[in-house]
# Entry
Amino acid sequence: MPRIVYYTALSYTWGSVTTEDHINCDGHLLSITIDLGHALRRMRGMTYSTILWVDQLCINQGGLAEKSREVMHMSMIFRNASSVVLRLGEEEHNSTQTIELNRAINSTMDSYTPYQQPAIADYEDLGISLPGDDRWTNLWWFFNRAWFTRT
# Structure
């Protein structure tokens, strides 16, 4: 019977493809991109141990044939992961506050049907800032991060 392997898949943006950072993986020094280095260091504080699947480490980046073949399997790799960690990047444009605004919008909109939405005047009563507030601009910046616009 096949052994089930539970793993966490990391979804992130590569940023510059220049490998300017390094990690020690199972006794081997590996070159990685700066963005992956940031992501892994953030994950280091997680309170549980997990097997981690990261494309930059699990796919031979020097082998074009392997890379092409493995990219076709990535949707299955992410679908079969026991969890997926999404790394959007470092804090910028008040992204923590933006996530809070997004949560407020989502929880408020859950109480409405698709055909029934709050009027602009109701936003403040619902605890959501009015359009024109800087938080809306920050929300725009948030959803224009590289992770959302990559191909």
In short: The chain has a mean pLDDT of 82. Residues 95-149 form one domain. The first strand starts at residue 7 and ends at 11.
